[in-house]
């Protein structure tokens, strides 16, 4: 913020001070000096007021834009609608998967334990149980739709949070090191020992090749190497 005194007023004040000492100055001279100084500082303060007003106007604009960005995030909708709905969708996926698994396992057990002495009755039972298995497998379509809705919610949150971080110039804070908690470590290790993504982990062909190798058996090191 830069301000400047009126050059003409400064020269006039200097001239008055040079021409009149304190003892020789008349009331008229003093009044003239006071008026000149008042006019000088009036311009200075006016310029200061304008500059400060513009600065506060910029701050107000930044705050307004920040409020708009936060409003775009729609925190109320996230908290009251989208996140609870995503949780319900995932609960429904778990329940549907559980019910389908139970139905398939029950049908398979009924087939395995059926009496094969009556071939016609056995065929009829197997056909009926196979239909039950096919019907149970249809859960995949519904669960796929539910999971897609959850993914959309996560993408919605991700896009708006990233936009807010970029708007607030917080990208440096996002990259700060995070110390892994014991709970996070446990969850990560459970995922590592759980189902793998496509192309990740041990392929069945690798296991078959190891078991069928003609080296008289596989050592523990060979087995461990599959999982490294």
Give a concise summary:
The chain has helices at residues 7-19, 27-73, 75-112, 119-137, 139-167, 171-174, 182-192, 204-211, 220-226. It is mainly alpha-helical.
What does this structure look like?
The protein folds into two domains: 7-70; 75-171. Helix 3 (75-112) runs antiparallel to helix 4 (119-137) and helix 3 runs antiparallel to helix 5. It has helices at residues 7-19, 27-73, 75-112, 119-137, 139-167, 171-174, 182-192, 204-211, 220-226. The mean pLDDT is 74. It is built from nine helices and no strands. 77% of the residues lie in helices and 0% in strands. The longest helix has 47 residues, at 27-73.
Question: What is the 3D form?
Answer: rod-shaped
**Segments where pLDDT lies below 50 for 5+ residues?**
none
Instruction: Give the rounded overall mean pLDDT.
Output: 74
- Return the structural class: mainly alpha
Distance between the termini: 62 Å
